[in-house]
Specification:
With 98 residues, the chain is of the alpha+beta class. The protein is built from 1 helix and 8 strands.
């Protein structure tokens, strides 16, 4: 975690008197690729072949949602579904459809 240290900015009315800025907390996010790797490593323990799935990954409220769905829509069931912390990479929740 880091804190922005910019302390002044020009005023909106154009005068040169600086205004105090409130510090902004910046949180480092894991990348989409990191989240996918975490999901793949965990899913590999339970599923022999992940190549039969399409993977959808999206950022939802600061966390990565990773969903595996069969490529062949005629197959019943589905694959693993993960919610991975966007900041720590921890698996928050997961479920398996089989």
């Amino acid at each position: 975690m880091s804190i922005s240290t910019s302390s002044y900015r020009a005023t909106e009315n154009g005068d040169d008197k600086p205004q105090k800025r409130h510090p902004t907390i910046l949180t480092k996010m894991i990348t989409k690729e990191n989240a996918l790797q975490i999901a793949q490593e965990n899913a590999g323990v339970y599923y022999r072949d992940l190549s039969v799935y399409d993977v959808e990954i999206k950022l939802v409220e600061g966390n990565w949602q990773v969903d595996y769905e069969f490529r062949d829509e005629n197959i019943d069931g589905g694959g693993p579904h993960y919610l991975i912390s966007g900041t720590t990479g921890e698996i928050i929740s997961f479920r398996f459809e089989q």
